[in-house]
Amino acid sequence: MFKIMLKGKIHRAIVNEKNINYEGSITIDPELMELAGMEEFEKVQIVDINNGKRFETYIIKGEYGKREIGLNGAAARMCELGDQVIIMSYALYEKNEVPNPKIVVVDNNNNPKTTKNSETPNTFC
């Protein structure tokens, strides 16, 4: 049996670009992707902290160091510029396998503040 479990997360990123005319996806700074163990074209779930919406799309690699979190196509209608989002990727794990998720907490400019491999409840508020 396999379990779907958290593989990587970018926590409290700020949406700083939107392009409704693009075909779809989320554009993410490659440094943030690397820190969170995410890859281009990987499926991700996005949670908007401001409005509570949850949706799925795939990653497109942005420009290194630009700190872009850009929603494209239909995904651009799910959030507003300036909204805080949580971007999560998942993987299949064997029943007895223990995941080691890569968690990246960013500041209000999408610069990495901390990276870790576990979460403690109520530490992000």
From TrEMBL:
One of its GO terms (cellular component) is cytosol. Pfam families: Asp_decarbox. One of its GO terms (molecular function) is aspartate 1-decarboxylase activity. Its cofactor is pyruvate. Is synthesized initially as an inactive proenzyme, which is activated by self-cleavage at a specific serine bond to produce a beta-subunit with a hydroxyl group at its C-terminus and an alpha-subunit with a pyruvoyl group at its N-terminus. The active site is at S25 (schiff-base intermediate with substrate), Y58 (proton donor). It catalyses: L-aspartate + H(+) = beta-alanine + CO2. The modification Pyruvic acid (Ser) is found at S25. It is found in: Cytoplasm. Keywords: Autocatalytic cleavage, Cytoplasm, Decarboxylase, Lyase, Pantothenate biosynthesis, Pyruvate, Schiff base, Zymogen. Substrate binds at T57, G73, A74, A75. Its EC number is 4.1.1.11. It is an enzyme of class 4 (lyase). Belongs to the PanD family. Heterooctamer of four alpha and four beta subunits. PANTHER family: ASPARTATE 1-DECARBOXYLASE. This is Aspartate 1-decarboxylase.
